[in-house]
């Protein structure tokens, strides 16, 4: 059978193709385990997840779609095992001598996927589980199944298998907001994602049906479609309710008026003595209900309950329905559904967010037990108070903060708000202590964000999502920017300030600390009056400015140190002293300041190694400051700068730079171009502009032989290509070039993995930015456009002058660079970041001084930032530009908007 996979893979059955977003946080778990099990009711996306894991597997893949009642022999035959395998497998499980099962020369590295295992016979199911328990060189086995009686989940977990259940597969609200525009072409209305996930349970099939309903009737309104619920009723009836045994279906219908199902409540309502067994079967054997952590309470998805209520209405008379509703209301238990972490909010627990806000704002008088910038051991011993003390210590840079947070968690087992907040603070402290090189505990952050959302603690869920953005998964990379947009839309200035901080951290994690982003964070905290985080922001900004050797960097670092000292934040003060060491030109003074920074850190019980790692990360030269702020392109030149800032870059196999000048190196070695004829040099530059792309010989003939295709010119072209190959790869035999490949009548400069081409990287970043902006992901679009501008070091091959073969590409790339700068400026202005918007607009005008949109954005940005002199200068420049084009000045110039 023809396979859709690459040539090195083989499938017994074709891997299904389904449209869904990447679930990297789930599929990555399968790469670290001997086997995996995906168990969930229908519609949760089991097959889609298995298909993603199969396509990501580097080795051969065998995909088996189970048939109803298939036995052991059919399973083994489909998977390609020998006929005598069953007896040997039994011997393996019994401890007899093991013989590796092989196929096509060996099974090592092969992935076997068994989808819908619940359809197999019990013996075949047991065999599939045994296959997953075998060690290498047996294949890695992934199994997808619905919940079923006798399913050996516990046996697989005991054998170190990774089990992904329905709760892990549920789409979170922030994932849904990204899913709809990406796959369904429809953006969700603000605020509807959370109720949509609650109503559907995050079930992939229900979300797809909602998307189709919205697309089919866009005038009905998304809220109305969700309230009506008819979009998923037929699916729930057919796929969820119809397969249930009659006795379970009747029991579920009779108890649907209860929002929370317990054995006692169901017994009181229906008189059934086997209610506990029925509830357990519906939850664990059929996956229709979701079990609460207490093991005795169960809940159904709201849309499923609505479907059941409609069933009940059709089967009972009005009198019977009213009587049943009365009994249900009398015995109902409507407490808040607890999160999966088995915690709940105690009635009457005091709200602790007020004292926490006071600590973050740097006003210790409002918080008992904290004075003069320090946390004392006095005051209340409640878990909430301990947690606030831990946060206060962390903000000050006290290394004992983690111990205080752990004590708070130990005392808060019954308070959901404190437990979830404490868990998030603990994770945040661990992430910040490890720095950009450390891991991000992805599963724990996902759980905290989801549990907080279920408890209506949306601000806490947003905070967890910001930390998710620091992880390696691309599907969550833009979460800090998304949260920033949400908080801005909701008018939550405090949440927006914290989200903007997460955006900065994301830039540092990517090795691109941005001056504009740090200035925005400092401005936000100053507007809120939050002195403690402002001290940290000022210190971090001082390090970046010092590393890039900006004017007045030494003075600004001293100001940051003075601010941190007056705010009582010793950790930020140590960071600011480190910035002063970077900025000073005097070597002796530099050593003295460095020692002062380490001493200040030690006095705050802050690890010196942690301070060093943050100085290294913030002093990275790959940030946004060079072109926009007037600093040096390569960063600061001080010998005391961090090792990361001045470490020699890794040398790729080939580096091709055509923007701002021509550079061509192989393994770090330059070439003596005088040994190569000028025409061959020019031909190489043309191929370099199109690196990685095939260039037809007609294009080369048109550029260098006036387009005349004669035997003589074709021979000259071949000779020129041959001379290039010999010049670049003298050690390779004739016909063995790996750099310049021929494809039919075309030639291509080959880009191998690790090779660098600034034009290719620039064009790729521009495409990514356009795509992200069209999909309404502005933060990702801004990052891509900024990356493109970093690559655009100047016009294309300026040394080739007005040569006809380069003029068209030069103008095209210049136009794309100007468009990228304008787009970046517009995005930053929409995000209320006018300083960055002005920098991007100025960059556009450097590239194209006649770009009308850039002048307009620059004027608006200067006005929004309160830069009166810069605004007046921009207006004069705009007027002069219009005059140079023969456009007379008009009243519109006083306010071009």
UniProtKB/TrEMBL annotation:
DNA-binding keyword on record: yes
Biased composition (Low complexity): 638-650
GO molecular function annotations of the record: DNA binding
One record GO biological process: regulation of DNA-templated transcription
Keyword DNA-binding: yes
SMART domains given in the database record: BTAD, Trans_reg_C
Record-annotated membrane-spanning stretches: none
Region (Disordered): 327-355, 625-650
Keywords attached to this entry: DNA-binding, Transcription, Transcription regulation, Two-component regulatory system
Residues annotated as domain OmpR/PhoB-type: 646-751
Pfam families: BTAD, Trans_reg_C, WHD_MalT
DNA-binding region positions on the chain: 646-751
Protein family: Belongs to the AfsR/DnrI/RedD regulatory family.
This protein's name: OmpR/PhoB-type domain-containing protein
């Amino acid at each position: 059978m023809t396979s859709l996979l690459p040539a090195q893979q083989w499938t017994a059955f074709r891997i299904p193709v389904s449209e869904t977003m990447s679930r990297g946080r789930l599929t990555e778990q399968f790469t670290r385990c001997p086997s995996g099990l995906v168990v969930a009711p229908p519609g949760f996306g089991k097959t889609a997840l298995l298909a993603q894991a199969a396509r990501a597997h580097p080795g051969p893949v065998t995909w088996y779609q189970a048939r109803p009642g298939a036995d052991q022999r059919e399973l083994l035959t489909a998977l390609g095992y020998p006929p005598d395998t069953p007896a040997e497998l039994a011997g393996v499980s019994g401890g007899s001598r093991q013989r590796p099962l092989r196929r096509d020369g060996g099974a090592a590295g092969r992935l076997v996927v068994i989808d819908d295992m619940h359809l197999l016979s019990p013996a075949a199911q047991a065999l599939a589980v045994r296959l997953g328990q075998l060690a290498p060189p047996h294949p890695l086995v992934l199994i997808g199944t619905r919940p079923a009686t006798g399913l050996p989940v516990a046996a697989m977990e005991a054998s170190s298998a990774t089990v992904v259940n329905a709760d892990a597969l549920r789409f979170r609200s922030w994932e849904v907001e990204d899913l709809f525009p990406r796959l369904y072409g429809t953006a969700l209305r603000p605020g509807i994602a959370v109720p949509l996930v609650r109503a559907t349970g995050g079930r992939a099939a229900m979300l797809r049906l909602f998307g189709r309903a919205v697309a089919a009737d866009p005038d009905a309104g998304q809220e109305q479609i969700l309230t009506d619920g008819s979009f998923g009723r037929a699916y729930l009836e057919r796929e969820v309710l119809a397969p249930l045994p009659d006795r379970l279906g009747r029991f579920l219908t009779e108890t649907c008026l209860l929002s929370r199902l317990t054995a006692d409540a169901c017994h009181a309502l229906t008189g059934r003595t086997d209610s506990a067994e029925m509830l357990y079967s519906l939850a664990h054997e059929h996956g229709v209900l979701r079990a609460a952590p207490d093991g005795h309470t169960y809940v159904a998805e709201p849309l499923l309950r609505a479907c059941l209520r409609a069933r009940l209405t059709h089967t009972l008379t009005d009198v019977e329905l009213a009587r049943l509703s009365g009994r249900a209301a009398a015995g109902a238990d409507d407490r808040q559904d607890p999160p999966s972490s088995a915690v709940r909010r105690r009635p009457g627990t005091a709200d602790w967010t007020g004292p926490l806000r006071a600590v973050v704002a740097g006003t210790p008088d409002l918080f008992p037990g904290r004075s003069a910038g320090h946390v004392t051991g006095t005051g209340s011993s409640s878990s909430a108070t301990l947690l606030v003390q831990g946060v206060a210590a962390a903000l000050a840079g006290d290394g004992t903060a983690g111990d205080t947070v752990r004590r708070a968690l130990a005392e808060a087992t019954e308070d959901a708000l404190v437990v979830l907040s404490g868990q998030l603070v603990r994770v945040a402290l661990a992430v910040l202590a490890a720095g950009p090189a450390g891991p991000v505990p992805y599963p724990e952050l996902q759980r905290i964000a989801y549990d907080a959302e279920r408890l209506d603690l949306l601000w806490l869920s947003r905070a967890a999502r910001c930390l998710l953005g620091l992880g390696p998964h691309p599907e969550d990379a833009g979460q800090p920017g998304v949260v920033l947009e949400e908080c801005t839309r909701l008018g939550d200035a405090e949440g927006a300030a914290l989200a903007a901080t997460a955006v900065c951290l994301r830039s540092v994690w990517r090795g691109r600390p941005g001056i504009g982003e740090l200035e925005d964070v400092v401005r936000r905290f100053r507007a809120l009056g939050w002195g403690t985080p402002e001290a940290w922001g000022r210190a971090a900004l001082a390090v970046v400015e010092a590393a890039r050797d900006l004017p007045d960097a030494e003075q600004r670092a001293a100001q940051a140190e003075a601010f941190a000292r007056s705010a009582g934040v010793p950790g930020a003060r140590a960071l600011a002293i480190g910035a002063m060491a970077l900025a000073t030109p005097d070597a002796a003074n530099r050593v003295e300041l460095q020692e002062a920074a380490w001493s200040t850190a030690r006095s705050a019980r802050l690890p010196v190694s942690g301070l060093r790692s943050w100085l290294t990360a913030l002093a990275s030269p790959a940030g946004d400051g060079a072109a926009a702020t007037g600093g040096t392109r390569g960063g600061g030149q001080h010998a005391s700068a961090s090792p990361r800032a001045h470490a020699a870059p890794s040398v790729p196999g080939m580096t091709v730079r055509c923007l701002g000048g021509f550079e061509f190196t192989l393994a770090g070695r330059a070439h003596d171009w005088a040994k190569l004829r000028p025409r061959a040099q020019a031909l190489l530059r043309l191929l370099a502009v199109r690196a990685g792309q095939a260039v037809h010989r007609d294009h080369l003939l048109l550029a260098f032989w006036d387009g005349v295709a004669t035997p003589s010119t074709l021979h000259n072209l071949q000779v020129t290509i041959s001379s290039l190959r010999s010049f670049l790869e003298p050690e390779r035999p004739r016909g063995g070039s790996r750099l310049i490949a021929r494809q039919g009548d075309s030639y291509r400069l080959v880009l191998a993995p690790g090779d660098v081409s600034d034009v290719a990287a620039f064009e790729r970043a521009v495409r990514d930015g356009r795509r992200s902006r069209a999909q309404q992901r502005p933060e990702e679009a801004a990052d891509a456009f900024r990356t493109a501008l970093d690559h655009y070091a100047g016009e294309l091959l300026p040394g080739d002058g007005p040569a006809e073969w380069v003029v068209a590409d030069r103008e095209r790339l210049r136009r794309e660079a100007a468009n990228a700068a304008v787009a970046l400026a517009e995005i930053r202005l929409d995000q209320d970041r006018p300083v960055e918007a002005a920098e991007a607009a100025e960059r556009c005008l450097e590239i194209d001084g006649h770009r009308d949109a850039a002048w307009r954005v620059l004027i608006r940005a200067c006005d929004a930032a309160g830069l009166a002199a810069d605004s007046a200068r921009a207006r004069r420049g705009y007027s002069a530009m219009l005059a140079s084009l023969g456009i007379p000045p008009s009243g519109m110039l006083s306010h071009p908007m």
